[in-house]
Structure to design on (224 residues):
């Protein structure tokens, strides 16, 4: 089950029962609505609380003894953790396009800033080699979901990085003039932050049937 639907159909029913309630509801009330044993309801409720989708609070005491726990949707996640990040990305890309006559350079600069922020930096006294910088770049790209592969030239140091998966493919298909320069800037910013003797000079979108190709060259080479 995905983050939108943790635990299967039964857990979805438990979540929906909480969402339908006009006030915080207890285990017994949820069990009755869904038609399950209270222990089963409690199991799914614990999982929803652990996932951060539901909050558990102590209800108002109705008599002697400890007040019972009641449950309510967590603010901002009442739709079961549904998010619209792609819509947000479309809005931001549209803003970049509409506010500059040269969106590609602007996107590259944004990418450089983020690449410098994301890269795993060496300790101050460590001198980074081309191979070491490429390894750190590949690790960063892998963390971001690009499925990167460094390709050595004639058995030597890598001069290309293949990006076999684009985590922003749907956006890149519509906004290649922004997304691809942003990716190039991401790599350039990371390598610049490392003060590496290598940089990314160009990114060829979909240059191979299953990959985009990033070209690497000495850091004094002209970037594209």
């Amino acid at each position: 089950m995905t983050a939108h639907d943790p635990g299967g159909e039964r857990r979805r029913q438990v979540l929906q029962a909480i969402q339908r309630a006009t006030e915080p509801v207890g285990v017994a009330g949820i069990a009755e609505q869904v038609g399950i044993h209270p222990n089963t309801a409690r199991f799914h409720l614990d999982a929803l609380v652990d996932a951060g989708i539901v909050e558990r609070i102590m209800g108002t005491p109705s008599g002697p003894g400890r007040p019972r726990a009641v449950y309510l949707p967590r603010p901002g996640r009442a739709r079961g953790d549904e998010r619209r990040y792609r819509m947000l990305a479309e809005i931001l890309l549209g803003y970049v396009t509409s506010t500059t006559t040269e969106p590609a350079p602007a996107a590259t600069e944004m990418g450089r800033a983020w690449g410098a922020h994301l890269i795993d930096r060496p300790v101050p006294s460590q001198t980074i080699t081309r191979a070491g910088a490429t390894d750190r770049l590949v690790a960063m790209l892998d963390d971001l979901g690009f499925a990167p592969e460094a390709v050595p030239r004639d058995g030597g140091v890598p001069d290309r990085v293949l990006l076999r998966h684009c985590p922003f493919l749907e956006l890149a298909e519509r906004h290649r003039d922004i997304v691809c320069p942003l990716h190039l800037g991401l790599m350039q910013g990371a390598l610049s932050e490392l003060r590496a003797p290598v940089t990314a000079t160009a990114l060829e979108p979909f240059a191979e049937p299953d990959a985009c190709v990033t070209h690497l060259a000495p850091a004094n080479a002209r970037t594209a």
